[in-house]
Amino acid sequence: MTIEDIQNEIIDEFSMFEDWEERYQYMIDLGKDLPLIDDQYKTDSNIIKGCQSKVWVHAEMNDDKIQFTADSDAIITKGIIAILIRVFSNQHPKDIIDADMDFIEKIGLKEHLSPTRANGLVSMIKQLKMYAIAYQTQLK
Amino acid sequence: MFNVETIRKDFPILSRKVNGKPLVYFDNAATSQTPQQVIDVIVDYYSNYNANIHRGVHTLSQEATDKYEQARQKIQAHFNAKFIHEIIFTSGTTHSINLVANGFSSILKKDDEIIVSALEHHSNIVPWQMLCERTGAILKVIPMNLEGELILSEYDKLLSKNTKLVFVNHVSNALGTINPIKTIIEKAHHVGAAVLIDGAQACPHIIPDVQALDADFYVASAHKMCGPTGVGMLYGKEEWLNKLPPYQGGGEMIAEVTFEKTTYADLPHKFEAGTPNICGGIAFGAAIDYMNAIGFETIAAYEHELLAYATEKLLEIDGLKIYGTSKQKASVISFNLEGIHPYDVGTILDKMGIAVRTGHHCTQPIMDYFKIPGTVRASFAFYNTKEEIDSLVTAVKKANMMLA
Ligand SMILES: Cc1ncc(COP(=O)(O)O)c(C=O)c1O
């Protein structure tokens, strides 16, 4: 599936929720189901700065596609990461770099996009795209 | 008679909604809300007599100067300073502390000792660390116990003839502990050390009498006591303020300037370089008037009631732990739910219209002591109600259910 397809799928899922509670409960559940990151990657150098909660991200490239794994000590943050990983993981670096992020607004998480928001969704997206840029240069 | 419903009408912001729910504002320790009486003073200033002070002969300038100096008088009276020139307007607590720390860099020598407490805000740690780096002085820390109280017997051991300065907050912003500052000051004076008290969190609840306390310096911010942001005060004993060199150079703080030599203005202007926050200073005075009209004893008694009520109700929640359990406490409750990150709790509470603070509250050493990433902090003001606390308790229970 393309990044856009996945985003549309997520928008569909979120459209079923009636209120913030259902939306957040879903994110919390996604957070709980997020596959654990390998402990060896939970290092200080893999921490994303700008988050009130800690976020670790690790990236690997196989067959020209990037796999992301991540973790956080806060569960809502973990839910947000789970959504981002679903969108970005197993995609070509170039597609990740070019990806439009409008879907965040469409699933009612716009408030997390403010740059001052302590969960640092913005810094997470930036970090994932940075990994993509780094791998993209390797490909050339 | 104190009637909270009447008081609430003074605060326009309290009737707004957040995320579709009535706002419950429990982040008062970060900044307090502003009553209409203070907002009116701000509007009046800009509508009627906005002008630069201390240097104009025209009417507006004189009116502004008079009001600004009246505000200084109100602050002097409120804190019971001996002289009006012992009150310096600053941009807030942080500025006041830096002003003093900077001044001491020309007084301290290598191996002099400075004592801070384990309960300090980063504002009251970093400037002293910088001072130590500049001077070679040594920083020592009064430890605390599990209740969040300073261990005074350890303080005794740290004091010596090398101690030059002691810095302690009056009330801890993270835990709410009211520190025994009178005793701390007395002991410091025994060895000849000066004491600065960070009153940022005390002033919304208590009237500090700087002469009775015998504090050498006392600092506070207007925005935590119903005033505007960007203005605060430094009280310093006259002899100390005369000893300290000016902090910033500029207009206002000089007596005479030639290219060969500048002589500094007398107190308080020596420390007030440049055009100050005139409107802010005047509004600070109005905020003090507003709070005094209600009465600090009334405020403290009511807030204590809120604190006791909230403590009891919150402790009924499964897995909830309160950090900071001193018997002497201001209306601040720092807590965590077992196994749940404070950030998650704060996010759910916000969704329900409840404003609390989450994180380390600029007191990382305290969080490290308890080995936690942070806490959820609810801090109450005299315009809060028991019904709002009930909403908080319901919301925390819901967060507990959703996140567990
Ligand atoms: C104990 C304490 N000291 C200092 C400060 C800093 O005050 P300001 O940001 O107004 O300078 C605060 C504010 O949170 C505080 O709680």
What hetero molecules are bound to the protein chains?
A: pyridoxal-5'-phosphate
Mean pLDDT of chain B: 95
Q: How many extended strands of chain B?
A: 17
Biggest sheet features of chain A: 2 strands, antiparallel
Shape of chain B: globular
* Average pLDDT rating of chain A: 87
Q: Report the portion of residues of chain A in β strands.
A: 5-15%
Following the backbone from N to C, one meets helices and strands of chain A in this order, namely HHEEHHHH
Q: Trace the largest sheet of chain A across and list its strands.
A: 1-2
Tell me the span between the first and last alpha carbons of chain B: 44 Å
User: What is the subunit organization of this protein?
Assistant: heterodimer
The greatest inter-chain interface is formed by: A-B, 15 and 14 residues
Q: Class of chain A in CATH?
A: Alpha Beta
CATH architecture label of the largest domain in chain B: 3-Layer(aba) Sandwich
Query: In which range does the helix fraction of chain A lie?
Result: 40-55%
**CATH topology category name of the largest domain in chain B:** Aspartate Aminotransferase, domain 2
Proportion in helices of chain B: 40-55%
Helix segment count of chain B? 14
